[in-house]
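Journal club prep, notes for RB
We'll compare a predicted complex against what the paper describes. Inputs for the pyridoxal-5'-phosphate case:
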Amino acid sequence: MMTSEHVRRPLTSKRVDALPASGIRRFFDIIATMDDVISLGVGEPDFVTPEQIREAAVRSIKQGHTKYTSNFGMIQLREAISRDLSRRYGVVYDPATELMCVAGVSEGLGVAFQAILDPGDEVLSPDPYYVAYPPNVMMAGGTFVGVPTFERDEFKLRVENMEQLVTPNTRALLMGFPSNPTGAVMDRTDLEAVAEFVRRHDLLVVIDEIYARMSYSQQHICFAALQGMKERTILLGGFSKAYAMTGWRLGYVAAPAEVLEAMMKVHQYVMMSAPTVAQYAAIEALRSGEEDVQIMLGEYDRRRKLVVERFNRMGLHCFEPRGAFYAFPDITATGLDDESFAERLLFEERVAVVPGSAFGQFGRGHIRACYAASYGDLVEAMDRTERFVARCRTERS
Ligand code: PLP
């Protein structure tokens, strides 16, 4: 007989219970309760989406384009994305069979791993990594295997470090370059070494190029454009960062037709189609957004120079991030660990940054500061951080 003492079954699945809790969320919950905080925490442009893009979206709604689109997304948009990839990076995707619009790279990661992993498959990925990578691999039944990367190596992914971790169960390599959280980029030689490795071990590659447009000191190399790589690569890209369109939820996946078809099966059941209004906005972004992108990139570059220079000057060694919009200084000179540093900086000086260990064990001893905040806020945040670092030094002596 059931009694009130009867042991209840857990309400949630073991699979989801096993997912790591986001190391960032606790900070944001605290920040939400505080005044006068300058947040360098969230990886989001401070710019509003350019006006003509917003207007195109409003127009589409007024014209009554409020229905689902094809599961793959509107063909006009896929054609525009295909042209853009071909023109910029020299990689050619068939808009009809090799491209699909998704609700951001976030969804793209989910559908990619659901489509390619079987239980027990392992996925290599450089550590420090973007926080959503391990959970997406785990939700698809895979095992996430972090590959150490080091500041002395500019946080580049090195084949010798993968070689020690690859096993017969390794199915794929997941990379995001330019990198969140380190700002690292890979040049052609670095990527060619990786390509040789994945060919030798017959791996698939999931490459997150959401920050492709934000490469400040060199031309971005699209991994799929390397010789022989397109047929084993799932390329993820999107509009959130370069066009300041985080809230629109639009990205795309490009992959060999057979893999794309499998991803579409997952996408149609979890999403149906990417937001229609965002697809109209994205068509306009690709048509007329370049000037706005260039203005925003110029501004990020100016801010990047400011924060790197300021961190180094206050004694927090900061290697030069060449892409994305994050600085990843080493804070060990303060004698604090990264969590205590971030917590004290928040409470004592009201500057929010993210502890590096939130991005994996090789992020320890660093903090991530997003410089997509206004120049004035960055100057003030750097002044406050400098005061805090000086205080840590006095406490130690
Ligand atoms: N990939 C990386 C590396 C990111 O930093 C982010 C957002 O911070 C995303 C993906 C999410 O992109 P989207 O807005 O297209 O879902």
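Talking point for the session: The pocket of pyridoxal-5'-phosphate is lined by residues 43, 104-106, 130, 176, 180, 208, 210, 238, 240, 246, 251 (CB under 6 Å).
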